[in-house]
Design goal:
With 166 residues, the chain is of the alpha/beta class. The protein has a single domain (2-162), classed as Dihydrofolate Reductase, subunit A. Helix 2 links the parallel strand 4 (38-42) and strand 5 (59-63). The longest helix has 11 residues, at 24-34. The protein contains four helices and twelve strands; from the N terminus they run βββαβαββαβαβββββ. Strands 1, 4, 5, 6, 7, 8, 10, 11 and 12 form a nine-stranded mixed β-sheet that branches. It has a three-stranded antiparallel β-sheet with strand order 3-2-9, with no helix packed on it.
Length: 166
Amino acid sequence: MKVIAAVDQNWAIGLGNQLLVRIPADQKFFRKETTGKVVVMGRRTFESFPNGQALKNRTNIVLSQRLDFHPEGVIVVRNLSELEKLLGRYEDDSVYCIGGAQVYKSLLPYCDTALITKIQRKYDADTYFPNLDHMPEEWVLTAKSDEQTYFDLEYYFLRYERRKDA
């Protein structure tokens, strides 16, 4: 499984159930990576989508314990055990964890690749991604793009891979 996220310098990912910033090239990268694939997310992340609709051209799986949660175009699982059984149907390389914070934290141990857009700015935030730079025994940075810019923002596309001996 892969994990994909955009983070600021403090590894923050959101504020008030919204992204910190929308960068068109990052959104294009996300679409390119996940289209035709399986995306796994939490209920609050799903509810943050425009009109609360499933992402097009993807298999949308939402982790939610709410029994009244049954949105159209989504497979709902109630716990990690159900999710694990369901994901057994898919190629591991076609599954992407897309958030939010609790789902990232729960599924990171099952991920072997992390695709991170690192924004060179600090934002006010209430939601964070685990800082992979503080986990050198588990994760190694294997690729870094040239500096990207969007108006006055600088950012990089990073690829981390789980250490084989971790």
